[in-house]
Amino acid sequence: MDSPLLLILLSAAIAIAIAIAAATDSCPAYPSVPPTDCTVSTDDANPVAVRREVYGDGRIFDISHRYTVDMPFWKSKDGLGQFLWLPASMKNGSRSNNSMMKFVSVHSGTHVEAPSHMIDRYFDAGFDVDALDLAVLNGPALLVDVPRDSNITAQVMESLKIPKGVRRVLFRTFNTDRRLMYKTEFDSSFVGFTTDGARWLVKNTDIKLVGIDYLSVACYDHSFPAHLEFFEGREVILVEGLKLDDVPVGIYNVHCLPLRLLGSEGSPIRCILIK
Ligand SMILES: *[C@@H]1O[C@H](CO)[C@@H](O)[C@H](O)[C@H]1NC(C)=O
Ligand SMILES: *[C@@H]1O[C@H](CO)[C@@H](O)[C@H](O)[C@H]1NC(C)=O
Ligand SMILES: *[C@@H]1O[C@H](CO)[C@@H](O)[C@H](O)[C@H]1NC(C)=O
């Protein structure tokens, strides 16, 4: 995953204020696990942000992972590392807080990939994340559980019996059970598509959005060839590093929105499911 260095300067006064405001001992701003038992007392004078995974009385699921310094990163032992700085802060005399953001790779956390990721002529032709079809990234989606004892092979794909006409599928795998996205050290034994599984999907289904619950849709040993099966036709969009825990299997409306990073083959993405 050799990606160009991304530098985003972000005026995120509100975001950092919320993050820092919540940074008490019982409720760290950058926890390594979701703060499910993180209860914070609030009073009107000193309100404290409450973090949620589900909104709207259980109707809206946030399926993006929170970016944290210790979240896993491709092939890294040490995780993503620092990505936010506060060069101007009110504590140090500025009129506002202004954060700076810099990711070691656009393929960080929950992210989307464009065909230019692994096909050079598509890079030259401009098939970047800004050119991805929002009509594919938004619409009815099926969340399925895949068998836990296998990577996603052609045989597994066939056994899932995903009906024709289904255009968006989020594959929940053994990765979710193993809580791999909450472990700092990269684990190459994650579950993903094998080359024949990817080819089977492209040939035999109408699926154009493929989502998965670890950093790559392709299993480690098939990383390049399985990705190429998806990218070649330029129709399939890959969303990786999704947070699919505690969401019931079923049909939802998915909404995934990449940043408009001109010339980039990947982007952090916010994805939600609406029941
Ligand atoms: C500004 O940043 C500081 C950290 O220097 C933080 O303690 C404070 O809550 C922030 N304030 C606002 C209004 O964003
Ligand atoms: C404020 O400035 C001091 C001294 O330059 C620095 O050590 C500290 O990290 C700064 N704090 C913030 C929140 O920017
Ligand atoms: C999936 O494939 C990887 C290698 O890419 C392997 O390490 C892992 O054990 C496989 N998982 C299962 C459940 O077969």
Number of helices, counting only DSSP H or I runs of 4 residues or more: 7
Determine the strand fraction and express it as a percent band: 15-25%
Uncertain regions: pLDDT < 50 for 5+ in a row? Answer: 1-37
- CATH superfamily of the domain at 111-274, called what? Putative cyclase
Question: Which CATH first-tier class of the domain at 111-274 would you pick?
Answer: Alpha Beta
> Helix content range of the residues, please?
10-25%
The arrangement of helices and strands along the chain is EHEEEEEHHEHEHHEHEEE
Query: Strands across the major sheet, in which order?
Result: 6-10-9-8-7-11-12
Write the layout of secondary structure elements.
Blueprint: E1 6-9, H1 13-21, E2 54-55, E3 60-62, E4 84-88, E5 98-103, E6 111-113, H2 120-124, H3 134-137, E7 138-145, H4 154-160, E8 168-172, H5 174-177, H6 195-204, E9 209-212, H7 223-231, E10 237-240, E11 250-258, E12 266-274
Helix pairs in contact: 4-6, 6-7
The structure holds 2-acetamido-2-deoxy-beta-D-glucopyranose (3 copies).
One 2-acetamido-2-deoxy-beta-D-glucopyranose is lined by residues 149-151, 174, 189, 191, 219-221.
Signal peptide: 1-23
Family: Belongs to the Cyclase 1 superfamily.
Subcellular location: Secreted, Extracellular space, Extracellular matrix
Give me a quick take on this structure:
It is found in: Secreted, Extracellular space, Extracellular matrix. 17% of the residues lie in helices and 23% in strands. The protein contains seven helices and twelve strands.
Describe the fold and architecture:
This is Cyclase-like protein 2. This protein is globular. The protein has 275 residues and is α+β, with helices and mostly antiparallel strands. It has helices at residues 13-21, 120-124, 134-137, 154-160, 174-177, 195-204, 223-231, and strands at 6-9, 54-55, 60-62, 84-88, 98-103, 111-113, 138-145, 168-172, 209-212, 237-240, 250-258, 266-274. It has a domain at 111-274: Glucose Oxidase, domain 1 (3-Layer(bba) Sandwich), CATH 3.50.30.50. Strands 6-10-9-8-7-11-12 form a 7-stranded mixed beta barrel. Strands 1-5-4 form a 3-stranded antiparallel β-sheet, with no helix packed on it. The structure holds 2-acetamido-2-deoxy-beta-D-glucopyranose (NAG) (3 copies).
